[in-house]
Structures
1.
Amino acid sequence: GAGDITVLEKESGVCGHQSGHNSGVLHAGLYYKPGSIKARTAVTGIRRMIEFCRTHDVPHEICGKLVVATNDAERVRLHALHQRGTENGLAGLQLLTPDQFREIEPNVRGVLALRVPEEGIVDFPAVGRALVRLLQAGGVAVETGAQVRALERDGSVWRITTDHKDLMADFLINAAGLQSDRIATMAGARPSVRIVPFRGDYMRLRPSSEGLVRNLVYPVPDPAFPFLGVHFTRMIGGGVEAGPTAALALHREAYGGYRVSPKDALSAVSYPGLWRFLARYPRVSALELGRTLSRHLFIRALRALVPNIRLADLLPGGNGIRAQAMHPSGALAEDFVIDHQPNAVHVLNAPSPGATASLVIGEMIAARAMH
């Protein structure tokens, strides 16, 4: 029964990491390879998440998104995205000419845009708080400030040592995000990937410049490059963010300044996969580092979409740290990675659309746990 479930949260509240530092976008599943777990969970996931937000009064808005091609190579890829989105089951996709898309986003320039009407924005920390209320109402214990220090198998049960108290459990579900590979290792699993943290910094449009972008404006992703590219996001609490950059983080949880954790830095730098990744994407790694260090390079990426944006329009925004699961080969884990061991499930990679699709992913995991 639900009364036998305990959620252990290391921080003093939920959504203290990726779920609270992401861009707050509801992703409908445009980019994902048809048939992948991401594609299957995104389309049902966004519908389920919207229904959840409506039912539980979580602030959200289905404002739609534009993906903009700025040259002929991107135009070809945009047509392919339109095709892929259709295969994935997205409704109402439209290819728009510059005259058409300027009615939606007057300041955006490009050769062709794809409108994705089903996407929107949401307050993910509020989703987390609503889930906690529902769980507690259903008799589930949610223990905050309960960092797991040790896990051991004792016959058929897990002995779990936390900061608060020790627990016994028949089944373990590890959804520890940035620390998920370490929890899996603690449990005696051999994780198939390592978490390599990438820090993403956002700039914010000054209140007087917020009119430059109305909703969500994204570039056409480059298949040769693992990240989505710099984009504009209106946020549910107000304001517009531009970003993110992607730089290797030397601390898995330093959101404020650039702190270095010797343990985290060593974990990344000693991983052969990271060096293979840098060798695989040298141009991109240099470019991203440049954008992180130089506002001028960062704004050049923004100007490709909104030409009349200036440095004066930007203020420092928020940042987040992406738990990027990397294979020893240096390839980034494209799809969700969920490893299994007897009486345990380890969620080792749940990047975007992980938050949007979280209710559906949760059902998948729960189904595995029940068997």
Note: The CA atoms of residues 234 and 240 lie 4 Å apart.
2.
Amino acid sequence: MTTLASTHGKAPTIDEIITTVIMARVSDYFGFFVYGIASAIVFPRLFFPMVDPVTGTLLSFAVFSLAFLARPFASFASRWVQRRIGRGGKITLALMIFGTSTVAMGLLPGYVEIGWTAPILLALLRVAQGIGLGGAWDGITLQLLNAAPKHRRGIYATIPQLGGPIGFCVAASLFFVLVGFLTEEEFYSFGWRFAFFAVMAVNVVSLFARLRLLSTELKDETKTDLMRSSPFMEMLANEWKPILKATFIPIASYALFHMVTIFPLAYELLYTETSIAYILILQLIGASLAVCTMIASGVIADRYGRRRVLLISTALIALLCLTIQTLNNSPAIFIIAGFALLGFAHGQSSALSSGRFKEAYRYSASALSINLAWIFGAAFAPLIGLVLTAQFGLWAASLYMFSGIVVTLTAIFLFDTPRGNSSASSA
């Protein structure tokens, strides 16, 4: 096991690292899902009322994808920023950009008030969110995985991923309260804006926790900085295969990610009479279950190997595709089962994005592969799913998830050679 030491005072304990990782990821995903939920149920009505509801939702989802496209460019540019103001200064600046742009969204007037200026400003602020998220890559997940015992890396890998379902629960709970206790007019007039204001407060708390951990300047026992940026072209030349692996092997779980969180909200609002409050309740149940299955994925990965977890979860996602029609009459089936599978499939993706990179390139290569996985797997999922639904019917939306299955299986058999049963060696 790698030991941790600090160049400035006492090194943080593993409990401190775990707490900081969870706080950071929950705050990231909370802000992420506040926008995602609003893009399905609020923005089409307020920013794109000039077109029919389906087209308005498609436009809203197109804006939703902009942040993911901005993230890799922001991550690359943040290397320059970090050299000048340090890692802590970079993260502070990035989170301030993210928080400020999010609050500004909550203050935006709609199309009725300022015309096309409203959706244009929304798109620009969405890009700013992507810049903030891309620049805020802090590498603390690498610290956690570096500190993990070799026989427990599967369970430790799930810890950053818990931010997804927990962050969604916080965001969905907030919207459930707003939708349930305000009239429709009150919600669309001012209620939804409170969720965006809350993001700033949560990010401030998370920022202080991150800075406290990063100030220790963790190094491993060989005195090599765990979070040192590497030359971009050199990194690509030496690590292109692990980058491809870390990008494409978890694509099935990334494709599923927005198909159970964002897509059902839009579909039920557009095509059924089911109340949004009921869908949010189902999603809260599903996200709670996802926490359990995510932890289970780590236990199974430690015992039987991460490769088996990937193969089993991918096969189960293929079965889930057959249930998408239940969104019409029994949405609980697809939503709850989908969240359970999301937890199981997504639980090991953080380990995939760092476990096989050489130490000298680990920080930069992990950031690049994570950003690319989000783009290829999740950024366009709600948009493509709704396009296919509008053109061919709900069954066609499952094709997007199935495409992720194909990519994952192809990448596993091309890039992932089994080397035993440990999670460390079968990643």
Note: DSSP finds 20 helices and two strands in the chain.
3.
Amino acid sequence: MTVYLVGAGPGDPELLSVRGARLLRSADVVLHDRLARALLGLAKAGAQVIDVGKAPGSAPVPQEEINRLLIEHGRRRRCVVRLKGGDPFVFARGAEEAMALKASGIAFEIIPGISSVVAAPAAAGVPLTCRGVARSFTVLTGHEDPERWPPGYAEALASLAGTIVVVMATNHISRIAARLVEAGLDPRTPAAAVRAATTSAQVVRRATLATIGSVLLDPPSLFVIGDVAGLDLRPAPLGA
């Protein structure tokens, strides 16, 4: 009896790992995130499918209940898949679920997935690193209001001279951008917003740090700030 914390990838079902797909096809129980619903067609007939997805500002199934369900089914079923958007250990609370399983003596494995942190910029034609442009990138959650950042945090981000990736920031991106400008980052710094990356609903918007707050995109959206956001390396459409 094993619980598998499976990374579903950024949205496109073809970006699920081969092992993740195999486990999904053999699972007795599948507990899935909202952004992983497109993969449920791979689940075997008769599998128990439980929606434990969260949305911005809404968590119908609290994390403590998700942990309890994983432990309960992990004790009774041969194969349990916890299907998580992106990668289980990147802004996905997979660590909390792994700790709960470990504390309860339930066997588990982590099946990595492609995180939107790298997939969304790539799908938008934005390399996170590029020789002569950016040698590093930093990822932060935009779930928290920047007014609650610790002292010196914004100044440290502004001084990195690399790429900044902000996830889950739809509600706070304008304040985050303003805080970075206050901390010394050039307001003309290129920026990009990507919604529903790698899916047929993908939208890409180009802006600058000064204007990225006016780009209105619904979740799931990700923001890239830095000189690399001025690049557009998407292939030309066929026949162009």
Note: The chain is about 25% helix and 20% strand.
